[in-house]
Every structure is written in structure tokens, then in C-alpha cells.
Design a protein that fits this description.
Radius of gyration: 18 Å
Shape: globular
Order of helices and strands: EEHEHEEEHHEHEEEEHEEEE
Bound molecules: succinic acid
Number of domains: 1
Length: 280
């Protein structure tokens, strides 16, 4: 009998799992977590006092881990990103709705975030179900979007005001310039999830620049409509962190947003990101 219990967070996405010990995870436990991840888009597991090696090992059960081409990883473990906001600074990593690394030819499949220093309040992470975003469109718009492609790039998000000091290594999170920042990749606006077979909207405000074959100006009205629609409160859940909580999300099915509402407090997380495949 499995000891894992599942509590949905909302009617749209997100579930908390209890009875999990990530440091001693059987294949049966992993299979249950994996299924919950597919079913709920984001799963949350509290009270995991683990070494970073365990975080890496857990991520690797899903697939190969990415080393980010721009965001610096730990010097001795480049696949781990330290997401640190010292007290007194504004949060600036992941603050904006997005799915991770859609500017890659093969956008990230999933991400695992481990909370170590948690503000007494604030710093929640929001998730939005992109199956529901697609399914709630009118048949006419679904039909139009089904045939469309969109251009994604890091060129905006990684060059906006405030990023230069990250390249200058003056901040807690640091970046290294890569010419790939200016690259553009093309993905379907609606992707079919390779494991669930469900269709999901696949555009996001952080990395989607325009529709393929259209100018930025021509694309804006419909893209802006979709960016707002994608993250309607009806599709969302909100995770309130606690020390040693782990969040795991499926970038093929949800977008996420790191809130910036805890300026007086430090927040420290560690993230590993799992390689994905080319969206179909
Ligand atoms: C991210 O991975 O986008 C950051 C999420 C967070 O810090 O809550």
C-alpha cells in the first residue's frame, strides 16, 4: 500500500503530496509522483530536508538535466541554479508568466524548485493550466490557432532594463552573455503533450515575440489576448512555500509566475530543469 496521499490545490491545477521521502524514493513512489505531475501540472511536496545531490538525482529520474546557457549555475554543479533574492532587493527571476526556456529548440520538459529560505509571507509561485486555456477557447479560435506557429526568443527577457548588472555579476543571480540570446525558434501555438496526448496553448508573455509570418505589430492584438486568457484566475493555483518544500512542474502543460512581494526578506531556492523535446 502506498503511503502517498494527494490533495488537489484548486479545480484547475496543482496538488500537494504527503507521505513522500525524496531521499528514499521507491520506483512505485516515483511512478505515483510522475502520474500526479501529469494529472495536475504541478505537484508540491513539503518537509524534504535533502542534500542538493538528492534534488539532482530526483530531477534525473525524469530525464537529463539542462545547464542553462545564460543563467549561471553553481560552479561545482552547473545544472543547479541558485535562485537567491537577498533582503532589500526586488525579485527578478521568473517574475512574469512563462514556461521555462521556450526559446530553446527543445523547451524544458519540467522544473524542480527546492525552497530553503522562505520569507514569512510573500514569494508564492503561481501556476496556470494551459490545457484549460486551450479547451476554453471558442471552436473558431481553436481552429485558427491549431495551424499557427509562433516565434520565441530570449532576446527581450534577457536584455530588458536591469539585466546588465546580472551580466556584470553584481547581483545574487548572475548571467553570462551568449549569442544564442538573439536566436529565434518557432513552435506551434498549440502543442500536443507527448505523454498525455492533450492539447495545450503554448505561447507566453516572456518569450513569445510574434506569430510566424507576421510582424510584431500584426501579432500583438491576438497575442495579447492569448497572454491574458492563458492565465485567467480560473486556470491557476498558488503555492505558498515553506522551508524544505519542493515544487515540480510540467512546462508542457502549465505556465508559472514568481511573485515579487517580499522585498524586505531573503528568499533562497535551488532549481534543476529537465530537458524536453521539440513541441509537436
Ligand atoms: C522560476 O523558476 O521561474 C522561479 C520560480 C520561483 O522562484 O518561484
Amino acid at each position: 500500500m502506498s503511503k502517498i496521499a494527494l490533495t488537489p490545490l484548486t479545480g484547475s491545477c496543482g496538488a500537494e503530496l504527503s507521505g513522500v521521502d525524496l531521499a528514499h524514493l521507491s520506483d512505485e513512489d516515483f511512478a505515483q509522483i510522475h502520474q500526479a505531475w501529469l494529472d495536475y501540472g504541478a505537484v508540491f511536496i513539503r518537509d524534504q530536508d535533502i542534500e542538493l545531490e538528492t534534488l539532482v538525482a530526483f530531477g534525473k529520474r525524469f530525464g537529463n538535466l539542462e545547464v542553462h546557457p545564460i543563467v549561471d549555475g553553481l560552479s561545482d554543479a552547473p545544472e543547479i541554479t541558485r535562485v537567491l533574492k537577498p533582503a532589500g532587493e526586488s525579485a527578478s527571476f521568473g517574475t512574469g508568466w512563462h514556461s521555462d526556456n521556450t526559446f530553446f529548440e527543445k523547451p524544458s520538459m519540467g522544473s524542480v524548485l527546492y525552497g530553503k529560505t522562505i520569507p514569512p509571507y510573500g514569494g508564492d509561485t503561481l501556476f496556470a493550466n494551459q490545457y484549460r486555456a486551450y479547451e476554453t477557447l471558442s471552436d473558431g479560435l481553436k481552429h485558427t490557432l491549431d495551424g499557427m506557429m509562433a516565434v520565441h526568443s530570449a532576446s527581450h527577457a534577457y536584455t530588458v532594463a536591469g539585466t546588465q548588472e546580472k551580466y556584470d555579476k553584481k547581483t545574487a543571480i548572475t548571467y553570462t552573455w551568449s549569442d544564442s540570446i538573439m536566436d529565434e525558434v518557432i513552435h506551434p501555438v498549440v502543442r500536443t503533450h507527448p505523454e498525455t496526448g492533450r492539447k495545450a496553448l503554448f505561447v507566453n508573455d516572456m518569450f513569445t515575440l510574434r506569430f510566424d509570418g507576421m510582424s510584431k505589430e500584426d501579432s500583438q492584438p491576438l497575442l495579447q489576448y492569448l497572454f491574458h486568457h492563458c492565465v485567467k484566475p480560473d486556470f491557476c493555483c498558488r503555492f505558498r512555500w515553506s522551508e524544505n518544500a519542493v515544487a515540480l512542474w510540467d512546462n508542457r502543460a502549465v505556465q508559472h509566475y514568481a511573485t515579487d512581494d517580499y522585498q524586505a526578506f531573503e528568499r533562497l531556492m535551488y532549481r534543476v530543469t529537465i530537458e524536453g523535446d521539440k513541441p509537436a
